[in-house]
Structures are given as C-alpha cells and as structure tokens.
C-alpha cells in the first residue's frame, strides 16, 4: 500500500513531496487513488505530440471544469469509446442526434454545454490545421521558464501563458477553454512543469531542468 499525504506530513507544515513505499517522492495528490497514482507516474506532464492526443486533453480538461480529475479518469475509457478515440474528423461529424445519444450515456459527463463544446472544438481544430495544427498552436504558448514549487501552496493554478492561450483559443471560437482549464492543460502536457521539485517526475517533459 502506498502512503497517503496525510500519513507523511506534520500538522501545520506546508505539503511538500511525499515519499511512497517504493522510495519515490511525488506531489501529494498522486496518492489520492490508484488511478491518480498511475496517471501521475506514467502520463501527467509528458509531452503530447499528436493531434488526437492533444484534442483528448482539451476535451477532458474542459469536461473536468467544476469536477475532480479523478471523476474524469474514471470515465476516460468510456470517453475514448464514444468519442472515436478522439479522432478529430470523426467527432467533428457528430450531428444533433449523436449529441443527444451522448447526453444519455451515463459513462461520460452529461452536460450539454461540455458535449457540444467537444464537437465544436473538433471543428475548430480542423480549421487550425491550416495554421500548423492544434499541437503547434498550444505549444506556442509554452513559457520559457517554469515554476519551481517545493510545496503544494506554491503551485499556481493559472498563468500569463494560460490566460493568453485561453484568449487565443476563444478568438478561434473554441469553448470550455478558460485560463484555469488551459493552465491544467499546459501542466498535463508538460508545457509547464508543476511537479514539486523533490518529485521523481520533475523534469519528465524534458523542457525544463530538474
């Protein structure tokens, strides 16, 4: 059994990296559930270089708004099934009947605005291909330097870059791409590194020094 954050922190002290039973230190939220643990150790902060992969992150980060990331991870397998493995052209072709079908599916977040935004954003992603594509567009907002947090309290939830990215995507008619959501996207894809400095995953994107 891996340790939880509250088993390793002293009361009254800021939450720093937590060392698990395997001797590796991680940001505390990684210990909240086995799915979070696996996601942290194998995926979060890794570069995403393909359109479908980046589109998936955009859709899921938007779906997460107002909810926990664990909720999204639990539903991600079903999202991949019903959203055609996030094939942009396939999702862009979804019609009103398909949207209604999705809204009846308990395996995803049944919020009309979020489902419709996924279809809309697929169509906008196709339009971006003429300007280099979704991946290049998002990467163009990556900062030259990254935060270097040692405690959870030092991890930002928004940045100048995520605010600019949000504004640029909204100008392209993307939806559910607010500054906080886009900051989470930049973190998830390694374009900002907010792994705690003592975490074994710090620097995993290769963009910033440990």
From TrEMBL:
Residues 1-23 are annotated as: Disordered. Residues 1-11 have a biased composition (Polar residues). One of its GO terms (biological process) is base-excision repair. It comes from Brevibacterium rongguiense. InterPro entries: Adenine_glyco (IPR005019), DNA-3mA_glycosylase (IPR052891), DNA_glycosylase (IPR011257). Zn(2+) binds at residue 195. It comes from the Bacteria. Keywords: Metal-binding, Zinc. One of its GO terms (molecular function) is metal ion binding. This is DNA-3-methyladenine glycosylase I. The keyword Cell cycle does not apply.
